[in-house]
């Protein structure tokens, strides 16, 4: 088990966004978090990544408690994410957007940075090389010097994934990765995520509304409704589940 969510509750004033939710994700699984709008999916992501403190409950990564750990420390522990609304630095190149993810791991001393000692330059070179390799892997290295926001929507999503991969995660959280993509891009993304899991030995947790995509990709899913877990298991069983159908009928028709 790589991630364990134990009895998490999150309230915003009177709104209970997550209501005593528990689930776990196994190593190398691709796990889907699904549910209607406002069900609490993004809130759960924000708790896992340390952006929100839960009102109650605990989060474990590889058996280590990470509840209430600061966001940057959670990145160092091995959790990376992408956002529902793409968050790239618009005035920076594709490469620089990815380097921002890698800087976190650079680790040279103040003196080495100040005086630009040899180790600083060789480390810089290594870091840049690694970023370029990730861009190559994602097939977007030819855009490395272009402004990130000048790329197509699908490629901007890839830049976000590249930046997340640059932090060497063991668990990758993707918030609606297929949103805004055409059917061809969605198909390619699914294949890419399988390859990412295998090549980088990564576990993937994703939020997605595209049920066809989820069906093709996810080993297991968890369905949230009004902050409560109403289903955890295989998607074939989710589609037949009475409670899931009631909460989420429209979207399952396309699975
Ligand atoms: N920072 C916040 N302050 C107050 N309420 C919030 C906050 N974040 C989320 N909520 C509320 O918590 C509930 C769950 O929202 P959340 O964004 O997690 O749902 P979601 O399942 O991700 O929805 P969507 O699919 O539309 O992104 C909603 O009622 C939302 O209004």
TrEMBL record:
Q: Where is the signal peptide?
A: none
Q: Which gene encodes it?
A: livG
Question: Which keywords belong to this entry?
Answer: ATP-binding, Nucleotide-binding, Transport
Provide one Gene Ontology biological process annotation.
L-alanine transport
The lineage, from the top, is:
Bacteria, Pseudomonadati, Campylobacterota, Epsilonproteobacteria, Campylobacterales
What one GO molecular function would you report for this record?
ATP binding
Q: Name one GO cellular component term.
A: plasma membrane
The protein depicted here goes by the name High-affinity branched-chain amino acid ABC transporter ATP-binding protein LivG
Q: PROSITE patterns, per this entry?
A: ABC_TRANSPORTER_1 (PS00211), ABC_TRANSPORTER_2 (PS50893)
